[in-house]
Structures are given as C-alpha cells and as structure tokens.
Write a structure and sequence with these properties.
This protein is an alpha+beta fold. The protein is built from 1 helix and 5 strands. It has a 5-stranded antiparallel sheet. The protein starts with a strand and ends in a 6-residue tail after the last helix.
Length: about 80
C-alpha cells in the first residue's frame, strides 16, 4: 500500500478547515478534517469527514493524530470485503 496525504482547506461550515485528502494507490479513499478549538477536549484530533469504499463508515471515528488515522484506514483497506 502506498498511502499519500494531501493537505487542503475545506469549507465545512465551521472553523474545522485543516484537512487531508487520503489517497491509496492514486485513488481517493478518505477525507480527514482536523477539529478546531470549538471541540474542546477533541481539538487537534482528526475526524473522518468522508470515507469511500471500504473506508466508508457511518460511525465516523475521531483519531488522536494522523498516524492513528492512517493505521485505521490501512486496516479498513486490507480487510476482506464481505457481501450480502
């Protein structure tokens, strides 16, 4: 796997603007947003704003840092796909 993070600014409607597009083998698999001071104890943590394919998750997790987020995304991408 060759995960690449691209810094971007995203208009989220709040002060959460610092973001990363996450690419795996050239395909966009996730968008991570860093939580602003509006989020008190979670300020500075990273939120899964959007996940695609195996990274899609209705219970979007919050990560302490980008390393934790990348590890989680890597696990999602390596899990066997279940159908039905």
């Amino acid at each position: 796997m060759t995960m690449k993070l691209q810094p971007v600014q995203i208009a989220t409607g709040s002060n959460d603007r610092e973001s990363r597009l996450v690419f795996e083998d050239g395909m966009l698999v996730a968008v991570l947003v860093q939580l602003s001071s509006e989020h008190d104890s979670e300020a500075g943590h990273w939120f899964l704003e959007a996940g695609f394919g195996r990274v899609e998750n209705v219970h979007a997790p919050i990560f302490a840092d980008l390393d934790e987020a990348q590890a989680w995304i890597g696990r999602q991408l390596s899990e066997p796909r279940s159908f039905g």
